[in-house]
Amino acid sequence: MLFFLCMRKYKNLTVIGTSHISIESVKEVENNILKIKPDVVALELDRLRFESLIYKKKKKLRLKDIKEIGFKGFLFNLLGNYIEKKLGKIVNTAPGSDMKKAVETAYKIKAKIALIDQDIKITLKNLSRKIDRKEKIKFFMDLIKALVGKGKVKFDLKKVPSSELVRKLTNKVKKEYPNVYKVLIEERNQVMGKYLYRLVQDYDKVVAVVGAGHEEDIIKEIKKWESLQKKR
User: Fold this and answer.
1) The whole model's pTM is what?
2) Adjacent-strand bridge partners of 210
3) Fewest CB atoms within 10 A around its CB: which of 56, 78, 84, 202?
């Protein structure tokens, strides 16, 4: 039996943290969904990315979207997609394979699908507004170092990183890129936590498939909503 390094359980919810380009993630997502047989599978996707990934609808952001999401958000999305594809080729696993397997397995057991992530255009717009010049320069400098092989953190891309490593990387982002952390992690965790809070009220068993590192904070958000409801 395979052991999932980034899985958290809370009441009737199981949150599976994945690496979007890891073959190990694909296998674990399938194994856990088949084992748990949830009523609903929640995905760290919004409608735009879901349709692009599952139905091959080419709804990629274009130059005309800069007016809506801002240049910095547009550029960040472009670079993120490029890097993910390059890493995917290295490990021979297409980006998003974990999410596709989650959808495929959910259909197999007749579970419902829930898209719990924030609209990517809102995320990129917030990124354009909040990231400052200092973070922008540092980000591109660190990106160049990583691309030429001078990054300090190394791990096996074919495997899901351990909780300890994910926590280390997350804390590094929070410290060195506070605005990026707030937009890409904190704000999205709030959105996903609120959505999952509603789902666990309506269904007996829920499985959420999210990127490794989101699990603990999402559960904290759910607990916050529970606490608010008790005070009413």
Assistant:
1) 0.78
2) 17
3) 56
pLDDT recorded at residue 88: 43
Q: What is the pLDDT of residues 10-68, one digit of tens each?
A: 999 999 998 766 778 888 999 999 999 999 999 999 998 898 888 876 555 555 666 66
Longest alpha-carbon distance in the chain: 55
What contacts 126, CB < 8 A, 6 or more positions away?
Answer: 73, 183, 187
> How do 13-18 and 7-10 pair as beta strands?
antiparallel
Which DSSP category does 139 fall into? H
Q: Are 94 and 88 in contact (CB under 8 A)?
A: yes
113-130 burial code (b ≥16 CB/10 A, e <16): ebbbbbebbbbbbbbbeb
Could you state, in order of their start, the residue ranges of all structural domains in the chain?
7-231
- Please, are residues 28 and 100 in contact by the beta-carbon 8 Å criterion? no
Residue 223, C-beta contacts closer than 8 angstroms, at least 6 positions apart: 10
Could you tell me the two tokens for 37? 């047989």
